[in-house]
Amino acid sequence: MSNPNKKMSNPFNVRVEIVESGYRTGIPLWKFSHVSIPTWRFYWNPEPGAWLRSRGTTVELLPRTAVLIPPNTPFSTGSENPFSHLFAHFMLRENGRPEENRIQLFEASRIIPPGIAERLTSFSQTQLETALLSIIYAAFSLLPEDFIVHGRAAPEFSVFDRAVKILDGDPGCAAGCAELAARCGTTVSTLHRQFIKAAGLPVKTWLLNRKMERASKMLLYENLSIKETADRLGYADRYHFSKVFKKYFGVSPALFRRSGGLPLP
């Protein structure tokens, strides 16, 4: 993980497209294991109480520290007491990828305007996204020039990229590893190897994480019943879906929706 005090050179130009963002207060629980999602993440907590763990290193999310998480970086989360959380899930428009999938740390004072914590609760969604774009660009300005590798995707990730495109295009995909490997034009062993290399996770674990992320968004932001959510994600019925969801998040889909959900990695 990067040193928050290290001075870095003026970087490449990047164009950020925010997929999801928000600011939530009084979060009582933030417990996820082995997360690895194909979008960038930005996190900043104005209050202590939560942490991230990646590659054997634990990072406390303190008010003085902001984090940038490249796509497909495996990590876990936890919390000890209620906290506030500013987050953005985003993509880069350029055809490029991070040089390495490691969490990057920043001194919050270097990228976040003074006094912004007091104004966050009064921001409209448009104002919030504008503020986050400014913060994210400031974070990228502190990264080394070669942090993003431009041009064609690295050949060793091409199988992973094809598989992700297939799975993203079919949220309810029920294909087994053999079928998915065949659709990617490769072998099962190569498919497994590329997922481990690119995402740090086996195919089935990555797919479960992706389905649960989509399930949470459907429950919170789309006017879908639990049965409709289960159908779209390829589960046989709402009972099987509810069982998987509760095992993953620790609460039932109904309770998750009623409580307003959690800020998902």
Describe this structure in words.
It is a single chain. The protein has 265 residues and is an alpha+beta fold. The protein has two domains: 16-150, Jelly Rolls, CATH 2.60.120; 155-258, Arc Repressor Mutant, subunit A, CATH 1.10.10.60. It is built from ten helices and eleven strands. Helix 4 packs across helix 6 (188-199) and helix 5 packs across helix 6. The radius of gyration is 19 Å and the shape is globular.
Question: What attributes characterize this protein structure?
Answer:
single chain, 265 residues, alpha+beta, Jelly Rolls, Arc Repressor Mutant, subunit A, 2 domains, 5-stranded antiparallel beta sheet, 4-stranded antiparallel beta sheet, 10 helices, 11 strands, 37% helix, globular, disordered N terminus
